[in-house]
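Exercise: predict the fold of this chain.
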Amino acid sequence: MIKYKFAFNSLQETININEIIREKRNKNEKFTCISCGHEMVAVLGNKRAKHFRHKVITEIECSPETYLHKLAKLRFYQAYKNCLDYQKPFLIKILMTKICNFHETDFLRKCIYKDNTLNEFDITKYFKEIQIETKVESFIPDILLMANNGEKIFFEIYVTHASEAEKLNSKFKIIEFNIQTEDDITIIESCRLEESDKVKFYNFKKEKEDAYCRGNCKYGIVPYAKIDLEYDFFIVYQNGKSIILRKTVAEIDSIIGILYKEIILLHNIDHSRLFKKSLYKFKVVEVYQKGIKIKNCFLCRYHAINTSFYNEGTIFCKFLKNTGNSNMAINCQSFRPDPKAFSEYVNDYLNQYYDF
């Protein structure tokens, strides 16, 4: 049950009942309800906890949900405005994934250097303007924070109903605050918002990219690694042949005639054989679209998938009327790449990828 720890004072500022000292209070000070606007009385007795109560004796309509919502909105405004006026930090803490790009140029991959690290930002350094219920396009956020470059953050408060999906899926960064009791206000007054059941961050960048390992790769990329680890490589040779090989980096570097190489993330993942076939076809299409000189039957307008139990090979060539593996295209004079023949392989792979 709401005990009304907060009310408006005569200056229309929210005031905590605990800020009022019985012996020193101004008896002429008028207090009004944050929710309904009716006059409030400060109860400062010693037997019961301090609180405000409505002065009128007759029953009035005062919504506890409206009270909590307005309270959180006004206390956030006051706390943030105070930080701006007195150059104090207002911090947000977001769980982020650190992505290492030190070896990206050489090995065409980035590594997850550290997952779920708590990163702290002082948003007053950038967002120096604050407004209440200002319309932005089709939305009216509870609180709007604005930066000089036009970037915006919505601060949204809810008691029972969270923000609508349209707003959460918009381009705007959103901090959503769930208030259930007056005690939750201490989270706002701490000027430090951390992801929790009460505080959610939407549309913030959750990945931070840098050359974190400085060459000392914990995943085994040589010559900096302590041990040589095996990786799954997608390889295209100079004659157009392509293959997936599991080797160490040093072993791959020793192979002569490689036109293109890329580490793919199959190691330590127990994917099905069907998934690996889809990935291979996807990589064939991808590197062809990058302009790499690859020749593979999966790209050719004349290919079909061999479904015969009596003929070996993955591919049936509708032009030559024979079967074989997809690399027989490297010696085929009838090879004709055609997007209509291979576009489905991209979707097949993506559909399986997002099912895992």
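Check your answer against the key: The chain has seven helices and 20 strands.
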